[in-house]
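Example 3.2
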Amino acid sequence: MAKSIVAITKGTDAEKMVGEALSHLGGVSSLIKPNSSVVVKPNAGHAFPPGTSVNTSPEMVGAVIRNIRKANPKQIILAEAASLGSDTMECLKVSGIGEAAEEAGVDKIIDIKREKDLIRIPIRDAISDLPLVLLPRFLIEAEHIVNVPIFKSHVSMVFSCALKNIKGVVQDKVHHQMHQTNLASAVMDLWSVVRADLTIADMIRPGEGFGPHSTSPMDFGCVVAGKDPVAVDATICRMVGLDVTGVSYFEAARERMMGNDDEKNIEIRGEKIADVFKKLWLPYLAGLDTWTEYKFYAKGACSSCQGLLAYTMEILKAKGEYDKNAGMSLVVGRKKELPKGLKTGTDCVFIGDCLKKYRGEGLFAGGCPPAEPFILYTIMDRKDYATAEQGEAARHRYEDDVRIFKKYADEKQKKHRADTEEKNIKRKS
C-alpha cells in the first residue's frame, strides 16, 4: 500500500491553518475539481453551544468552506444527520455551525434525516451485520465529500474523529442498526460504500474528558488533514498520546484494508508530531468497565445511551452517590430477552425506550435517548423516570447537579494537566 500523506498545521487562525494544510496536500485546486458538487460533513451530533468541543467548531467549518470556495466548485452543501434522538437543524443552530456555514457562503444546508430520495446500497463482503444502507442521492452523486470532524473522547469508542464522523450520513434506522452490531466494523462497512475523499480534522480545541457530550475543551491549536481517514485518525492518536493498538477502529480498518495506521506508512508534512504533542485526558480507555462497582448489560447499546450512562456514573461520583448505589445492574440496548444472570428488582435499571417492554421487572429510565437526569435520578431515587412532566420537574434540580459535575470535571482536568506536566519535567530531567 502506498504511503498516506497527512498534513499538520499549528496556529491561531483557522482559515490560514486549513489553507496551509491543503497546500501540503497539493493545494485546494488539486483536491477539489472546478464546477463540482462538494458536500461538507461536520460533526454536529448534539445541541451544544460553541466552545464545548462537542461539535466541530463554527470557525473550523467556516474556514473549510471558504478554502473550498477558492477551487470554484459549482456548489457547496453542508450536510449532517445528528445523533439518535437529536434534531439536526437544532444542533446546527445551537452549535453555531449553521450560521458559520451561511456566513462563509455555503449554497445549501441539508438535514440528512429528512431526505426522502434515498438509494439502497448493499455492502459487499461486510465485516459487520450491516447488510445494506440507505443513502441520500445528493451524497452519492456529489463529486467530493469533505469530512470535517472534531477529535473528542468517546465512551463507547475511546475517541471520535475522522472515521466515526461518517456515521452522520445515515438516517436513524441505519444509525440504530449500526449499534446493534460491532460498531467499529459497521463504521468501516459504511466507509466502503460512501468514502469522503478528504478529511480536515478540527484539533484547535479538541474535547478530552467525559465525551462525547460532556467534554472538557483543551487548547491544542492544530488542524490535521489528509485523504486517508485511517492515517488522519492514527496521526492524531499519536499527537495526543493514544496507543492505536488499543482502539477497535484500526483493527476493523485493517480487516477492510482501508488505509494506513502504521506510522512507517504515513508521511507527515508541516508540523512534526513531536513538536505539537500534548497528551490528552481520555478516561474511557476501558469503556464501561471503568466502573467496576456496577454491573452493565450494554450489548447493542447506542453511543448516546452509553454516553449518558457513563456521564451518570461520573455525576454520581461528583455528588458522593456512587458508593451508595454500588452493585446495581444497568441494562441498556435492545434485548430480545432478559440477559442471563440479571437480577431484576429495585437494584436493576432498564434504560431507554427500546427496553420499555421490561418495565415492571425493575426500575425504568425512559426516552430515546433518555433525558440526561433520568438515569441519574432513577438510580438515586429508586423510582421510574420516563415522562415529560418528570423531566420538567427535575430540570431545576438537575441544573444544580450539572454545576456540581462541571466543578468535578474541571478539577479532574486540572489534576491530569498537573500530573502530565510533572511527568514531562521528570522526562526532561
